[in-house]
Design goal:
With 68 residues, the protein is an all-alpha fold. It has 3 helices and no strands.
Length: 68
């Protein structure tokens, strides 16, 4: 996840310079926008992982091993 955020931030920083005239009200390297986007994606990933993790916690480990 951290590697993806790092690559994405570098890509966004590189693309922000050619697109700086199209971004109204934001600086091309606005740290608040970058941190906000990372926080939003982190929350979405945590929520996406929550349902499968809760389902997996309900399974008895010995039953899962016997089933395999």
């Amino acid at each position: 996840m951290a590697l993806g955020f790092g690559i994405g931030a570098l890509g966004a920083a590189g693309l922000s310079q050619p697109l700086r005239h199209r971004i109204f009200g934001l600086l091309p390297l606005d740290p608040v926008a970058y941190v906000g986007a990372i926080a939003l994606f982190t929350a979405v990933m945590a929520l996406a992982a929550l349902a499968p993790a809760r389902r997996a916690m309900r399974v008895n480990p010995s039953d899962a091993l016997r089933h395999e």
